[in-house]
Automatic annotation (TrEMBL):
Lineage: Bacteria, Bacillati, Actinomycetota, Actinomycetes, Kitasatosporales
Highest taxon of source: Bacteria
Enzyme class of the recorded protein, top EC level: hydrolase
N6-carboxylysine modifications at: K131
Keyword Protein biosynthesis part of the UniProt annotation: no
Pfam families (alphabetical): PTE
EC number: 3.1.1.104
Record keywords: Hydrolase, Metal-binding
NADP listed as a keyword: no
Protein name: Metal-dependent phosphotriesterase family hydrolase
Family according to the record: Belongs to the metallo-dependent hydrolases superfamily. Phosphotriesterase family.
Length: 302
């Protein structure tokens, strides 16, 4: 039976409800000094604000070594009444100390599998997806290493692989590697940040592969793509790919939280959802927020 692996255990996909398919409660990186998501009280407030807006599930894409605070997630989930799915995986090399990456050589896939099946550290919490990342219009040696390990872990567990596309680029290169060379089933690949590079031809070709397309990180002034996103989503839906689309908020710095004055998680339901209803209708918009993430993150765990 397929289940979604949350921080409180495996749940029936039908119980997931309205889902923010890509976000962060906790995150730290040397690339974002002084902007860490590391405040537990603020994380709870943000979850409660999301819940008040009608949300019921959040998928945290924060991977290994980036301040996931996994041990705090079950308590937050219970307190806010929101399902949380957490990730294993590895981001781009720039987010890590070279010593840590060196220590993971030769055992990365084993780390991913252990976190998916046995649990993360001593927390007892099991990851529900694998997060990796590409580069800008290319895949460097680090990306190929992490994606190869992710593919090995996917074969062992059937877990989905969620991919950070740098500025939304490189989608077809990622699919060529993961699904072509490494044999990952396309329906187990989630491409993130497609809204950042609004190339409708690339998006449609990616959708034709059978993968999931995530439009996440709305209202970022330096991306300037909010106004294009509904057009892209509508074009994909009209082409028959409405059942492959996901939506997320991707809050990565403290100032972006709604409780700190930013758009945060509630923005997805407060502003993005009604905007999409105008273009797609309420039924399809609701499907993108409920049935689609249930399908993307539901796994027959091995």
């Amino acid at each position: 039976m397929s289940t979604v692996r949350t921080v409180l255990g495996d749940v029936d996909p039908g119980r997931l409800g309205v889902c923010d398919a890509h976000d962060h409660l906790f995150l730290s990186s040397p690339q974002l000094p002084g902007q860490e998501l590391n405040d537990g009280a603020a994380a709870r407030d943000e979850l409660e604000a999301f819940r008040a807006a009608g949300g019921s599930a959040v998928v945290q894409w924060t991977p290994y070594g980036m301040g996931r605070r996994v041990a705090d997630l079950p308590q937050l989930s219970r307190a806010a009444g929101v399902h949380i799915v957490c990730a294993t995986g590895l981001h781009q090399a720039a987010h890590y100390a070279p010593e840590l990456l060196k220590a993971l050589r030769g055992k990365l896939a084993d780390v991913f599998v252990a976190e998916l099946t046995d649990g993360i550290g001593t927390s007892g919490v099991r990851a529900g997806l694998i997060k990796v990342a590409g580069g800008f219009h290319a895949l460097d040696a680090h990306a190929r290493w992490t994606m190869t390990a992710a593919a090995e872990a996917q074969r062992a567990t059937d877990a989905p692989i969620a991919v950070h596309l740098e500025l939304g680029t490189g989608a077809l290169d990622v699919l060529d590697l993961l699904c072509g060379e490494l044999g990952v089933p396309p329906h187990r690949v989630i491409l993130g940040h497609l809204n950042r590079s609004p190339d409708l031809v690339v998006q449609r070709r990616a959708a034709e592969s059978g993968c999931w397309l995530a439009f996440d990180g709305p209202s970022r002034s330096h991306h300037a793509t909010d106004w294009r996103m509904p057009d892209a989503v509508r074009a994909l839906a009209e082409a028959g790919f409405g059942d492959r689309l996901l939506l997320g908020g991707d809050t990565v710095v403290a100032g972006a939280r709604s409780v700190d004055g930013g758009p945060g998680m509630p923005y997805l339901l407060r502003r993005v959802r009604p905007r999409l209803v105008l273009d797609l209708g309420e039924d399809l918009t609701n499907r993108i927020l409920t049935e689609n993430p249930a399908g993307a993150f539901a796994v027959e765990w091995r």
